[in-house]
Write a structure and sequence with these properties.
This protein is α+β, with helices and mostly antiparallel strands. The protein has two domains: about 80 residues, Arc Repressor Mutant, subunit A, CATH 1.10.10; about 60 residues, Dna Ligase, domain 1. Strands 3-5-4 form a three-stranded antiparallel beta sheet. The radius of gyration is 18 Å and the shape is globular. The N and C termini lie far apart (about 55 Å). Keywords: DNA-binding, Metal-binding, Repressor, Transcription, Transcription regulation, Zinc. Its cofactor is Zn(2+). It comes from Stomatobaculum longum. GO terms for molecular function: DNA-binding transcription factor activity; transcription cis-regulatory region binding; zinc ion binding.
């Protein structure tokens, strides 16, 4: 079935369902492959990557790649959110992505431009750390 230049296959539909169910956190291609195979779809890693590439090109998903050469992770794009305009925070514990779309970012951008002559490009920029829940869990384990 063709919709606006794209083919809607069972694999693509199930990938989108999985991404929708995983909203608010990132997933890897291998997470998606495991899920698809777990529900009985006989798909190859190539099929998963090809679908993810197309969904990314269509701006339906976000793709994050760490500079350390780690594998990419993906997240469903939320309409109305302009990810090129803000930084992202990724929790090393649970994989949650937090979009820093607060007024503070405007102050940071302005400071970088005025104080350092540097124009910040936020698209694809990820800072790593721990979300509040994982930090509390980690601190609780360390104090035990």
């Amino acid at each position: 079935m063709k919709r606006s230049g794209t083919y809607s296959t069972k694999s693509r539909q199930e990938i989108m369902k999985y991404l929708e169910a995983s909203a608010g956190r990132t997933v890897s291609a291998s997470d998606i492959l495991d899920h698809l195979q777990g529900i009985g779809l006989n798909v190859s890693p190539t099929t998963v990557y090809r679908n993810l590439d197309r969904l990314y090109e269509e701006k339906k998903i976000l793709k994050y790649v760490a500079e350390k050469g780690e594998k990419a992770v993906y997240q469903l794009e939320v309409e109305g959110r302009h990810c090129a305009d803000h930084l992202h925070l990724k929790c090393l514990g649970c994989g949650k992505i937090i979009h820093m779309d607060c007024d503070f970012m405007d102050e940071v951008r302005e400071h970088l431009m005025r104080g350092h002559g540097f124009s910040l490009q936020c698209e694809g920029t990820v800072l790593y750390g721990y979300c509040e829940a994982c930090r509390k869990k980690k601190e609780g384990l360390q104090s035990s």
